[in-house]
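Session log. Operator J.P. requested a structure for one protein chain; no other inputs attached. Running the standard single-chain path with token output.
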Amino acid sequence: MTFTWPLALAALAVLPIFVAVYIDRDRRRVASQAEFGNPDLLPNVVDREPGRLRYLPPIILLTALVFMIVGVARPHATVSVPREEATIVLAMDVSRSMKATDVEPTRLDAARIAAKTFLDEVPEKFRVGVVSFATRASVGVAPTEDRELVSTALDTLAPGEGTAIGDAIALSLRVGQPQATDAETQTEPEVTEDPAPRAIVLISDGARDGGEVDPAQAAQQAKERQVPIYSVLVGTPDGVVEEELTGGYRTLIRVPPNAETLEQVAATSGGEFFAALDAEGLATVYDDLGSRLGTREEDREITDVFAAIAAVLLVAGLAISALLFRRAL
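Structure written below.
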């Protein structure tokens, strides 16, 4: 324990003087009673003597004074407080197949709506970022507590080509670091000790299609960094996408969802795979993060604790004196 004003503790040296004065006063009171009568006859006058109980109120008040003096010195202590911060990166698939309408209005719009619902439920202290991926992965917004920025990033998502799942995971790991990374060099930052827990929510409808990083390798990196990946499958076996060909012709391309890659990355990283895009499944993500938050050590001023104890002791001492002995101290 440390103190902002340690000199105030010098007042504690006065307490022995108070004790000595009280003891001398008590002895004089007993002696004066003997001068005016026979102490042996006192039981005939009163129901009972207070005995050693008469020392209880002064002891309580003296203890209260100790706490008041220590409180004036403004004590600080290192205490364990609940952690509230965590980082979640939403990795959103914007590949061509996400234009399918088997999930209304489209797979991408359904994923966007679910992500926003998820965003509304995430605790305010959690930082949320957005990474979109098609042929390549890109950062929509770095992890932030500003929900408006995240919502805007989700609104700007537009379909592309390819499904670079591994690239999306690798990029999500970088942007979700406790310290910022250099976007140009993509150098790894120095990770602070005991960083806040992180997680990746990967929303997609299929297997890898392009990209430089293998999803299995990216998931292994996530596991090593203790970043679970919660993968969510979007789409039904009836999904189709209409594409325009040269000459004005149109064709329908079947795009059934593929769960294999999403299951693999979730299992490897220590996360969980969800076959349905619903709020209940996504709630598991921040529930799990909350269970891993734990506590952190923080230096806090605890003057209010000492002041409260002193106030309680003062009231208790006065109450005991008034109720037991029918007098003030």
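Operator note: The CA atoms of residues 242 and 252 lie 5 Å apart.
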